Amino acid sequence: MTEIGKKPLRLVEIQESVLPEDEWIIGISILDYFNGVGYSMPGSMRLDRSLGQEAGLLSGGTLTSDLIASSNIDDQLKTESVGNGEDDSLLSGIYNHEDDQVRASSGKDRKGLHIDFPQSSILVERLLDTDELTNLYAFLPGIFYCSGQQTSVDAVLIEVTQTQRFGMTLSSFRPEDVRALDVSKGFVFDENGGRKSVKVTVDTLGSFHFEDFLKDSGLSTEVMSYSKEVELARRLSSLISFMELKKAYASSSFLRSRLVKLLDDVDFFGLAPRRRIYVRNEKHPYGRVVEVNYRGFDSVLNLGVESGISCADEIDLEHQLNNLVFTKLMGMGIETDVEVAIMEMFQLIETGLKGKVSHEEVLNTLSRED
Amino acid sequence: MKELTEVAKMIVNNLHLSLVFKTISEYQKKDALEIRDELGLASFSEISTNPFDLLEKVKRHILTKAFQDKEKVEFLMTVQSWAGFKPNRIYLETGDQAILAGKRSALAILWIMILPKIAVSPTILPSDIEKQGLETLVESILLSDESRAELNQVVSFEMINRGFIEEYFDINGIESGFTIDDSMRRSRLRAMLALMLMKGSDFPFDLDKVFNLPEHRLIEETTLYIMTKQAMASLSYQISGSGSSRPFDWPLVGTARVFSRLMLTLDVLRKFASKMTTCSLFTSTVQGSQQVWTEWEFTSYLIKEITDYYANLLRERSSKGKNEELDAFVDILKGENIEITTSVMESDDKALTIYEELSDCKRRAQIGEKPQISPERRFRVVLSNLKQQLTEARADVLAPDELVEEIVDAFDAITELIEKHIDSLGSQVDKFTEELCFETSFRILEILNLGASLNNLPWVSRFIAEEAARTSIARGDIESLEEQHRMKRIVSAFAGGVAYLVLQAQRKDLE
Lengths: 370, 511
What we know:
With 370 residues, chain A is α+β, with helices and mostly antiparallel strands.
């Protein structure tokens, strides 16, 4: 465990649009953990697991096919599937109140020592079968701030869906959109107009403006033969080298406004789990922050034996989350799940920041050169 | 076949056409002390400097002076070691020796490099290129020390006759400062000289294939490079014209006579180019296998060259106000290259047909017609144009403005394509635009060997878009940021990102 403390904390940015007004997510994470972004195992792996469980049920002597055919169970399922198709917070609220039985049953952990109720188990299995996990999930634990929801989360989880349009594959997630930001050096102008590299601190954040460069060059609308962006790029390419552009980005006012949100959040909420996850999947194509509970984490406090994530708002999501398996590449390369990864990440971030949460301390750690 | 003396006469005759010769002449007169002075090398620093480093420094200095092309200089600096030559450390004892050896080697390289350009008179008929004794010249350069000594003597003699008293011709200096095992020397020296001649012809070549050629084939191949170069020069000379006769000076579109000459030159070019086996410029990959261009492709190439000429004209004139007719004309030529080529190939009188096709395009441009192609086709055409432009331009780097223009063309095609399908895309417009831009950017970066910088594209694009948006806001031009412009702004952002990455990489290459 000693080497983990040395793993560098990174400022990570997830941007899927190139337009400035669109959503962004910025956070603190350790990309070594999954060697980039974690991808869930493909569906076939999971299938084996559920087969094993089915066999266990059969040996218990319950005829599952009969139970599914019986009317009252069927009704339950229909209510569920209506709720499933709608992306409406009001509807999901109604559904949650009515469906106590399902919630109670799904709350059970199947690993620990406990009494299993066969019927509810079948319900759960059935539920699982109806939303078969066919897509990969991209997963990155860490403290992230989401601009869309204006709140911080413990992890980002994106279902990788692909659709075809006119021969193009539209993918919901591109690895290139996630990047570790190098904020070790920024870029400012001194009094004489010369450029110099500086260490990024709270004071030098956001001190860079392109106008300082371009105000004399007369980037006016009249003389442009191309779009503003191309014209800007053309001029920039002769003035700022790529290495300098990285630094300029680190000290740009746009990054500053994002970074400050994140730093404020860390300063205010500290390094405890937020109990929220950013999820984007077929049901929530524009992303949603979901409230969750970490049973494993809580059971340490109340001496329970349960583990796994629970999310009260979306019962089907809870199953999906608990079924996701990722291969952790840091250390020994073992398999891990959403909850364990989030908990480990928090521990690593706490070690990395040495528990300090002030703006200066956090920025200092993130901008340390290694 | 002409005698060596006649070839030598031709070379000396054309010396005034070469700018590089000015560099040769300048440095032939300079002694070690002057070069030392120029490079700011103090003699006391000698002990700490390795003589061979000094040699390389002088050599690089002279080569850079002659060619502003970094890629070329880099090639010439390393070609000796590729061929197996090693620094001769025993021979280089003092700093002055090293400086003079560097100078001698650099000047010999410069001589070799200008020979493909000046060995044939620029006014010669293309069909006569073959008869200019180029093979004799190449043979005497590649064959042996004796043949090279003879060439030195003959050309130097001719120079004295023509009044070049202070300059001299010397290509033996090419090895100066280097050494190689005697058993390999002859073949390696031959290959190295051939490579330099090929480089001097500005065509890309496959290094391994060149090294594997037997002697007579190597002489033949190198001669083909020079002859192809000459045919191509003749072609572009005919297109651009000179003095009062500029057949393609808009609104002129040539004449049937001009085109019949061009078609003849094209045939000559095809004859030479299709025999080359180590050059990739005139081949295309069909279903994974390399195939030499057919007549169809050469015709398409001619139309493209003419189109490029007009595009350059458009750029030059753009400072004097927009020329919409010419702009439309270039667009039509670019977009309908395939159609024009096909109709030319189907006719009996090719020269006449190509003239008629161009006249027709001109007429359509003047009434403001747009090229008759669907956005999808246009998109493909733009991409293949770009690819051809870039692979061709490898040797001499494309001007930044041209590069930006090609990139903007590609992204404009995206905008057109999406506007046409905007209704059926519905809510997926943004996503589709992004994906298409990303894909296109990737292809552009790949063509330019910058595939690895794709990772940086999203943030560079967004950064540029942010800064552009900021200038808009600062100017109070908020309107352009509205929702309905989203698609165009996404395209512009990617175009900006790609433009920055490409221009930056190019700039880095030049430094």
